[in-house]
């Protein structure tokens, strides 16, 4: 199964469950997985993670807090 197929299946499941904010939920789950992976790869260094992700460090910190991730 490709990543895209997994995303489509997850979207389908959310819709079948009556999720009203499919995009927001999907976006949060993807961010959570990607941020965890990148932060693990750079040993928690937020500056490096932000550079890898192509976002500002302040944006990364904000999303980490929004997603309830621990570093």
Topology:
Elements: H1 3-16, H2 22-41, H3 46-53, H4 57-67
Oligomeric state of the chains present here? single chain
Mean pLDDT: 95
Give the termini separation.
30 Å
Query: What does the overall shape look like?
Result: elongated
The rounded Rg comes to 14 Å
Model regions low in confidence, pLDDT < 50 over at least 5 residues: none
| Coarse structural class | mainly alpha
How many strands, which pairing sense, and closed or not: the largest β-sheet? none
Instruction: Give the amount of beta strand, in percent.
Output: under 5%
Number of helices: 4
Helix-strand string: HHHH
State the helicity in percent bands.
over 70%
For the secondary structure, the number of strands is 0
Summarize the structure in words:
The chain is mainly alpha-helical and 71 residues long. It is 75% helix and 0% strand. It has 4 helices and no strands. Helix 2 packs across helix 3 (46-53) and helix 2 packs across helix 4 (57-67). The chain is elongated and about 40 Å long. 4% of the residues are buried.
Quick take:
With 71 residues, the chain is mostly helical. The protein has 4 helices and no strands.
Question: Which key phrases capture this entry?
Answer:
mainly alpha, 71 residues
């Amino acid at each position: 199964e490709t990543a895209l197929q997994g995303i489509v299946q997850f979207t389908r499941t959310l819709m079948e469950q009556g999720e009203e904010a499919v995009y927001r939920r999907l976006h949060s789950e993807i961010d959570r997985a990607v941020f965890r992976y990148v932060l693990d790869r750079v040993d928690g260094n937020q500056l490096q993670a932000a550079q890898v992700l192509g976002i500002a460090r302040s944006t990364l910190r904000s999303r980490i807090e929004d997603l309830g991730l621990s570093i």
